[in-house]
Amino acid sequence: MDQFIYLDNAATTKTSPTVVEAMLPYFSEYYGNASGIYGIGVKSREAVNHSREIIASTIGARPEEIYFTAGGTESDNWALKAAAEMFCGVRAGGEASGTLCRAGAENTAKKHLITTRIEHHAVLHTCEYLEKAGIEVTYLNVDENGIIRLDELEQAIRPDTFLISVMFANNEVGTIQPIREIGKIARKYGVLFHTDAVQAYGQLPIDVEELQIDLMSASAHKLNGPKGVGFLYIRRNLRLRSFLHGGAQERHRRAGTENVPGIVGFGQAAKEAAETMEERTARETGLRDYLIDRVLKEIPYTRLNGHRTRRLPNNANFSFQFAEGETLLIMLDMEGICASSGSACTSGSLDPSHVLLAMGLPEDIAHGSLRLTLSAETTREEIDITVEKIRQIVERLRGMSPQYEDFRRRIPR
Ligand SMILES: *Cc1c(COP(=O)(O)O)cnc(C)c1O
């Protein structure tokens, strides 16, 4: 059998068989519309509410604070755009006029939001959209490990700041942000706090009360659930506008017939992730560290990107000097090893990673990164095979690199 090693779990995960099993009856048996008053409609509604309860319980929220969406991207868009509109009178479709936030029109208007340079594009591109609409955005820098500086965050807050949006953990380098401290600062200044927890949810314990999070995005397919379903946690009493207008679903805030099988699958995946979290992440952390240690020890001129310990249990990200990242990926693929250069959105494009650039890596090195993200099913044997292949491929690529030859010649013997 051909070798197949999947190490791209930050891009997406395999839907777990028990999740699929939980979903199946909701396709052709209990297919009723959750708004229906007849038996199978009620069955759907109960299933949706059951998932809502499970998910709420995993983050210390109330069920009525969980709104199902079509994934992480939608949740991020909703949080940012609706927060802007709430404080600023931003109107959808008004972006061309640049008058969404009429300065001085209302002295209560707030038009400043703070985010970071290393967010997922679902946040960054939404910020760019909001900037065209007259919102002012501060993009916080990060240190060499990809962590924001709290004093810079505090200094960036203005009287008209309405939102701080900082991701829980980064999808490329796995770095975990000081969420508790950010929550504290946000609360102190009366600014809303949104976090994109798409990578963190299911891997790290999260309590929205303890961490003082007001808005939080998550997505099922990053934790062995189905694709196309996510949630936005919205703190109670927060009068965030509806994202989709239409029916009365999701308490009138996100119209559209519920994706019942998807939501059921998300609930099941969330339950499994919560139940297995401690043991699973301890095991993955061990394998991750084994992988990192071997690569750094056995392949010279290699650096680990992201913080050594404050990182997701399943994430390793390396840069290999004198070895082009894209070629490395293609050659790994020929060996049946699925890896990534960082984010699904930048692979295939020639742009270096915006995350690595923000961390201060020079452009040539930011091009050459390799992200390996493990799952509960990853074995030590797979790691061994992968390290060996990377070592061989990097050696071959360097053997063809004039820069490497040059560099070697200049090393004093
Ligand atoms: C995958 C990802 C998203 C997008 O989620 P989708 O459900 O794929 O839309 C957003 N933010 C982060 C950090 C992610 O890793």
Features of this protein?
7-stranded mixed beta sheet; alpha/beta; 40% helix; 413 residues
Task: Note down, in words, how this protein is organized.
This protein has 413 residues and is α/β, with parallel strands linked by helices. It contains 13 helices and 12 strands. The chain has helices spanning 17-23, 25-28, 39-58, 72-88, 121-132, 150-156, 179-188, 260-298, 325-334, 354-358, 363-366, 380-399, 402-410, and strands at 5-6, 66-69, 112-116, 136-140, 161-165, 192-196, 215-219, 230-234, 302-304, 315-320, 337-338, 369-373. Strands 2-8-7-6-5-3-4 form a 7-stranded mixed beta sheet, with helices on both faces. A 3-stranded antiparallel beta sheet has the order 9-10-12. A two-stranded parallel sheet has the order 1-11. Helix 1 packs antiparallel against helix 8 (260-298) and helix 4 runs parallel beside helix 5 (121-132). The radius of gyration is 23 Å and the shape is globular. Pyridoxal-5'-phosphate binds at residues 71-73, 76, 120, 122, 167, 171, 196, 198-199, 219, 221-222, 230.
Brief synopsis:
The chain has helices at 17-23, 25-28, 39-58, 72-88, 121-132, 150-156, 179-188, 260-298, 325-334, 354-358, 363-366, 380-399, 402-410; strands at 5-6, 66-69, 112-116, 136-140, 161-165, 192-196, 215-219, 230-234, 302-304, 315-320, 337-338, 369-373. The protein has 413 residues and is an alpha/beta fold.
